[in-house]
Amino acid sequence: MSKEMEINLSKITLRPYKISDVDDFLMYGGNEKVTRFTRWNTFTSKQEVVSYINDYCIPHPYCRSICIDNRSIGFVIIMPRSSDDRCRADVGYALAAEYWGHGITTRAVKMAISEGLKEFPDVVRFQGLVELENKASQRVLDKAGFLKECVLRKYSFNKVSMDSTRLSLRPFKLSDVDDFLKWASDDRVTRYLRWDSITSGEEALTYLEKVAIPHPWRRSICLDDRSIGYVSIRPESRDDRCRAHISYAVGTDYWGQGIVTTALKIAVSKVFKEFPDLVRIEAMVEVENKGSQKVLEKLQAQDIREINKMEIKLRPYQLSDVDDFMEWACDDQVVRTSRLRYYTSREDALHYLKEVAIPHPWYRAICLEDRPIGFICVKPGSDYQICRGQISYALGSKYWNKGITTVAVKLVISSVFEEFPDMERLEGFVNVEIKASQRVLEKAGLQKEGVLRKYVIVHGKTIDVIMYSCLKTDQTN
Q1: Which of helix, strand or coil describes residue 334?
Q2: Which of 58, 183, 201, 269 is deepest in the core (most CB within 10 A)?
Q3: Strand order in the sheet with 243-250
């Protein structure tokens, strides 16, 4: 169909799918141009399409065939959420390539929204996610009356597998000699170091054998397991064993890419566990070395130091925690500012711990000297949302404004990407009116992405939220 050919948009209809749509569906569902930005693979046979229509399209709460003269040329779906998220629904669509550029998808989306408002009375927000590259789909939503709210980083993926992380820390090996010499012989790298540039392979081997390998904690910063720099932590001894000195360097080819900041965050997250007496990590930087100063400012090591000082720990809940749980979970100030409900009895709280908190994939008590004073949890996504997890938390009001929740969030970030290897994005949303919780996520290093209107129901009221996120590539490997 040529773009010159006019389409009478009044002939566009939406209807449920039928098995008899199989041939028409295969025409667009088997076209890679159409499926490039969809979450399902290109269909290759009628049998695949029959199964998809029968198992997914027909039983779906709102999956409609976009039709011209009752012939299927695409689809539009509305997926309403449940529970406290029932105020919103996701919208998705695709159209046969020969019908692109005629306003058909925009028309279909508008028709679907009109029907959806009647079929799903709890829904007050329809939202659509579009890949940044997919400009045409962005225009569809713009024309359909959707408001662009923000860019959500690493939010979802379709058929493309996520790349494994390339950056890592490991002990040096003698076989690193050539890679080590490449950056350790560069005067620009060693300019601010306490050792001179290495000038030969023999000198590099001696350094690795006599200094780097026997060092109590010196790690090679590796990209695809190739050494591109180092990070070193040297704990003091005796009465000074509470502190350690950190130093680092990276090859000039990798400056300005956030590699050193990421490497230091990995190092700091590990070293407090390996040296239990350690409560302070310090670094000295020459005043001229502005790049290194920025690295340490981004690291914000002072907050991590507070973890040991305040004895803040995260651990799974136990049934024996019920009394401590009730102390903060029955706090009016906590319930009012969170999505928690009131617990009216000890039995009610025990049931919650037994049926919800303990079997949850990642639900931890925030503990001060092993006594629960709040909770923090991560809900990992599934299916095409497996690349992201959602963080939530609450803390007893008498512990507010002490930096405890920020520490707890940082503890989560230091481990959650390792525990859920498919997770690339950790996100949290906060009521636009709760400034303190916004500061928690900002101090913990999450990035504000935008305001999502009428996003969730809290205590019977649909509220606007601010979405924050951090990525695996921001934090650790």
Answers
A1: helix
A2: 183
A3: 167-171, 218-223, 226-235, 243-250, 280-282
